[in-house]
Each structure stands twice: as structure tokens, then as C-alpha cells.
């Protein structure tokens, strides 16, 4: 797929931000090959221009944002676009907004330290994950342990 098909009006991108690291913006006009400036509107309604010819991070165009339906996905590999802003945003949504500390990235378990004790390690949780396949239930350290145990026994 050509870049001009991806960077069209109403699609959303991530642009570098000094305070928040990445900020979401909507494309206002279709991108045409050869252009160096992308017309954007930030989430707060202000207009912005992304001049990728002088981008300090070295990217040619800003990373595309995933569709809203994928926001908070429990496996990062299910995202349409897997890059730094997509991973950080997904982890933020899961941890800050939903209070979920575990997220899969394929067979890898990503954990965000909540810096407090959580009631997610009791006997009932152990039994819930016992005998289950990884991915059948929400991401959890017990799912990884169960998968390791099954593979060792096999």
C-alpha cells in the first residue's frame, strides 16, 4: 500500500511531544508524494504542521495511530501498527484507565509495576488459570507459569 493511501484526511497519527512524549493528531489534508509538510489537528482542536523534512527523530512521516477498536488490546501483536507510541498508549490505557497491569506481546508478558499490593494472586486466581491455555483468559503471570509447566511436562 502506498503512503499516500495511508496518510489521508481523517486518519490519525502520533507526533513527538516535549511534555507527553507522543501526542495524537488527525490529518486534515491528504498527503501527496513529494510534500514535506503534513497538515494536522491536535486532540485539543489546535492546528499543527508536521514538517518531516526536519524531523529530529529521523522518521519520514509520523507513525500512524491504531483504530479505536484496538485501544486497550490485551495482546500488543494484535495492533495494526506496532511501534513506540502505539505500545506506550496501549499500556497507558490498560494500566491508567483500566487498572490492568499485565499485557501480552505474543508469548511475552509485559507487566507494569503498580507499586502496591493487588488482590490478583490468591488461590481462586491460581485455580482459574490451572489447565487453561495461554490466551484463553486475561494476561497474567499464572498463565505464563501454566504454559511453562505444560511445556516442561510435555
From TrEMBL:
<dbReference type="InterPro" id="IPR027417">
    <property type="entry name" value="P-loop_NTPase"/>
</dbReference>
<dbReference type="GO" id="GO:0051015">
    <property type="term" value="F:actin filament binding"/>
</dbReference>
<dbReference type="GO" id="GO:0048731">
    <property type="term" value="P:system development"/>
</dbReference>
<dbReference type="GO" id="GO:0005737">
    <property type="term" value="C:cytoplasm"/>
</dbReference>
<dbReference type="InterPro" id="IPR001609">
    <property type="entry name" value="Myosin_head_motor_dom-like"/>
</dbReference>
<feature type="domain" description="Myosin motor">
    <location>
        <begin position="71"/>
        <end position="154"/>
    </location>
</feature>
<dbReference type="InterPro" id="IPR004009">
    <property type="entry name" value="SH3_Myosin"/>
</dbReference>
<dbReference type="Pfam" id="PF00063">
    <property type="entry name" value="Myosin_head"/>
</dbReference>
<keyword id="KW-0009">Actin-binding</keyword>
<dbReference type="GO" id="GO:0005524">
    <property type="term" value="F:ATP binding"/>
</dbReference>
<dbReference type="GO" id="GO:0016020">
    <property type="term" value="C:membrane"/>
</dbReference>
<dbReference type="GO" id="GO:0000146">
    <property type="term" value="F:microfilament motor activity"/>
</dbReference>
<keyword id="KW-0518">Myosin</keyword>
<keyword id="KW-0547">Nucleotide-binding</keyword>
<dbReference type="GO" id="GO:0016459">
    <property type="term" value="C:myosin complex"/>
</dbReference>
<comment type="similarity">
    <text>Belongs to the TRAFAC class myosin-kinesin ATPase superfamily. Myosin family.</text>
</comment>
<dbReference type="InterPro" id="IPR036961">
    <property type="entry name" value="Kinesin_motor_dom_sf"/>
</dbReference>
<feature type="domain" description="Myosin N-terminal SH3-like">
    <location>
        <begin position="8"/>
        <end position="66"/>
    </location>
</feature>
<keyword id="KW-0505">Motor protein</keyword>
<dbReference type="GO" id="GO:0007015">
    <property type="term" value="P:actin filament organization"/>
</dbReference>
<protein>
    <submittedName>
        <fullName>Myosin VC</fullName>
    </submittedName>
</protein>
<keyword id="KW-0067">ATP-binding</keyword>
Amino acid at each position: 500500500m502506498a503512503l499516500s493511501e495511508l496518510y489521508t484526511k481523517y486518519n490519525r497519527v502520533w507526533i513527538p511531544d516535549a511534555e507527553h512524549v507522543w501526542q495524537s493528531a488527525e490529518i486534515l489534508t491528504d498527503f501527496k508524494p513529494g510534500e514535506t509538510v503534513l497538515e494536522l489537528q491536535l486532540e485539543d482542536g489546535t492546528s499543527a504542521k508536521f514538517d518531516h523534512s526536519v524531523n529530529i527523530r529521523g522518521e519520514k512521516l509520523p507513525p500512524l495511530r491504531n483504530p479505536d477498536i484496538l485501544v486497550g488490546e490485551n495482546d500488543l501483536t494484535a495492533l495494526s501498527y506496532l511501534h513506540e507510541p502505539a505500545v506506550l498508549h496501549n499500556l497507558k490505557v490498560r494500566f491508567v484507565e483500566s487498572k490492568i497491569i499485565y499485557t501480552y506481546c505474543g508469548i511475552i508478558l509485559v507487566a507494569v509495576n503498580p507499586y502496591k499490593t493487588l488482590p490478583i494472586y490468591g488461590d481462586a486466581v491460581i485455580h482459574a488459570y490451572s489447565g487453561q491455555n495461554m490466551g484463553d483468559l486475561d494476561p497474567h503471570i499464572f498463565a505464563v507459569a501454566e504454559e511453562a509447566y505444560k511445556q516442561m511436562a510435555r
